[in-house]
Every structure is written in structure tokens, then in C-alpha cells.
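Fill-in record for prolyl aminopeptidase.
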Amino acid sequence: MRRKMLTAGLVLALTAALGGVAAADARPGGRPKLTDPHPCPGQPGFTCSILTVPLDHTGRVPGTLDLPVATADNVTAPKGVLLFLTGGPGQGGVGAITRIATQRLPEVAKDYRFVMLDQRGTGPSGALQCPGLQAQMGSSDIATPSPDAVKECARILGHTAPLYSTDQTVADFDQLRQALGVPKMVVDGVSYGSFTAARYAIAHPRNVSKVVLDSVLPHHATASASLYLTGLTAEARVLRAACAVAPACGYDPAEDLAWVVRHRGAADGVRIFDTIVSYEFADPTYRAPAAGDIIGALHEARGGAPAHLDELLEAYKSGGDDPASFSAGLHAATLCADQRFPWGSAATPVPFRQPLLSLAARTLPASATWPYTTEVATRQGFIQSCLPWPAERPGSNPAGPLPDVPVLLLNGDHDLSTPLEWAREESAQAPRGELVIVPGASHSIQNRERGHAGRDAVISFLR
């Protein structure tokens, strides 16, 4: 076991984040409470408060965390509480409640009391600060960090790193339910929020009435997911479908992508993968000239004119996001605890990992990564963030089905961050699941869908 050390900066950060031991004594023997209620700045109709939770719900590590919470003021909403969970992992939630409840889902907000929180390690007051990772990865899953940046982040977090697993976050959610004084909630999660929503429903099946999983990340982690195999291979389907929309391209964009990746090498292959996934947020058609026409850029590059593609690689380059809006440190800490890898779990000693990764890579057929390559799969950020991460106690990884409650699964068929294949996989684990596919939509239906079909499905499901 490695020696645990706290830097002076970490001590100061923990002192601020934990709120002192006295905070843990604010509710001795009682249920959790929301404290310091006040109007949310700039968000009329919502009250902001603080939920104090244990730093470690297992009791191994003392201390507390203060999590900001935003609640709608319609306390007597006829259909009860809807806990809306943001993604990443790394995004806060409090600052987004007006956009989600008032602007995107006002029909739902008439019947439900929306609640959002800054999950542990996120948000303006609690974001984990890992400067190297933040500069190199920003909000990306895919950009390749340097080993030094990963090790710096692990040193900063020290012995607290395993305390940002989904297990701990799920326990926070139930403390929030208790503080709200409700026996059940609707839990609605987007992207990584779908992962935490499903995991909450599995851990506390009697405390959920319905579940919405939007842009779905399956709740059972696998080595295949950490290699991003589904995301890599889904690009052929999505780009071909985009090219088939009139006026049709007249060429195969997947073949163009495969050719460019193989002629530019693995490092650029990762950059191209990252760029295409980032690009979907600007242009779910993948062909709009105003956004850059990524399909056209790939075709031009294959034809010997790479300037357009190079411009897009630079324009959509990852890194440097404000940790208050997305914490790369929290992202790494959570994924490295939760995920399962070709080398096993977070408990696998670091020296064993690269040999096991190399062995797995040698057994992958070309079809497992096409139109990309095995080298792209092993050099992207999911793997490279956790390859040098210190061995630690892993989070749980439930393989069983979702509970027997109504579950709505939403996914755009142009989504490359959480491809439709993942939604189908999770739907098979939902005994009362309904999968709604939104044609032409990319990631985050409730937050970003340009039409209303997906949101109409949510409204119908919740009514």
C-alpha cells in the first residue's frame, strides 16, 4: 500500500470543503437536514441550501462535506420530488436548475418539485482542483492526459481519492431524500447522471417511483466500456446515417475516417475521436458548414487536403475548462474507482496494469475498434487516466437488473458520447423499461435536443 501524504494545499482545501467536524454534529441522531436556505442567486423560484453529508459513508474516514442543493419553491407539487442528476462525472447541478426546470421541462415542473445538487467534488464551492488534468483534459473523456498530470492529481487527493466513487454519491442522494422528507422520488439522470440514477435505483429500490435515463451509460462497468469500444465502432453507423440524409454525400465517411486514422497514427487518431465526439454538441448532423462539416473535412483529408480537418482539431481541442463547471479531477477520481479495465479493478497494483492492457490489446480483432485502431482504444483518456492512478479500494459494480419500477430510457441515434448501443444494453436490464430513440439527435436529450420529441416522451412518461 502506498504511503498517504497530504500537501499543505490539500489540507486547506479539505478544511474548507469539510466544514469542520462540528458540522457532523449538527444533526446527532436525527435525519439529515437542509441548512442555510436562501433564494438562489439569479434563479427566481428556487431556494438554495446546504446538505451536510459524511465524507465517507462507510465510516472509515472521518469528516463531512457540504453539498449545495437547489430546490424548486413549489413544495406541495402534486406529483412529488424529481431529483435531476447532471453528468460528467464532474458537472455541478445547482446552477443549471432554471435551465432544466423552467426553460427545458416547464411542463414537468408544473407537477413535480425539481431538485438538483452539486455532487461531491463538483461546483463552484466544491470542485476538485487538479491543474494538470484540467489543462490537458478539461471536460473530455477521450483526450490523452500525461502520466505526470494523473499522478499530480492523485497526490493532491491523497487518501480521499476513493471517496468520490459512485457508491459515495449514491449514499449522498439518499441523505438528500431524507432531508427533503419524502419516501420516494423520481430520479432523472443525463449521461453519467443516468449511471448514478440507475445505481441509486438499484441501491434503494423502495425509494424510487420512476426512473428516467437520458443518454445512457450502462450501470454495470466493463473492460469493453473503459476501452470505449462501443463508442469507437458506433462512429461508422452514425456518420453513415448522417451521410445518407438528403442530399446524400455519395461516399462512405466511415472509410474516410478509417483511412485518415491509419495514415495519421494513434495520437492523431485519439484527437480525431475526441474532436468528433465534441463536435456532436455543436452539430448533430455532422455536416453543417457553420459548425465545420466534420464529415466533409474527413473526406477532404483523405483526398490529400488536410487543412480543414486540422482547423477542426484545433477548434475543438479539449482542455482548460473551468473546474467550477467541470472538474477533471473529480472525473478521474470517480472513473478510476468505478470502472473495470483490461487489468481488472482499481485494486490491481499499478505495475501489473500495462502488461495486462497489452495482452488484452493483442487479443482484440480489428473489427472491435474499426474505423479506429487498437492503439486509439488503448491511448484514449478513459484508459490513460486510470492506468497510472494509485491502487485503491474499488467501488461496487452491480451486475443485476434495475428494480421493478417504470424506467424511461432516452437516446439520440446520433449520440457518440453515449451511443445508442449502450441504451439498448441497459434497456435489457430494465424489467419495466421503455426505450425511446430520438432520430437525428445527439447527446443529452432533455438538455440539448433541438426538437421536442424526446421531451414529449418524458412528459408523457411522468404524467
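KEY FINDING: Residues 34-130+159-222+399-462 form a domain with the Rossmann fold fold (CATH 3.40.50.1820).
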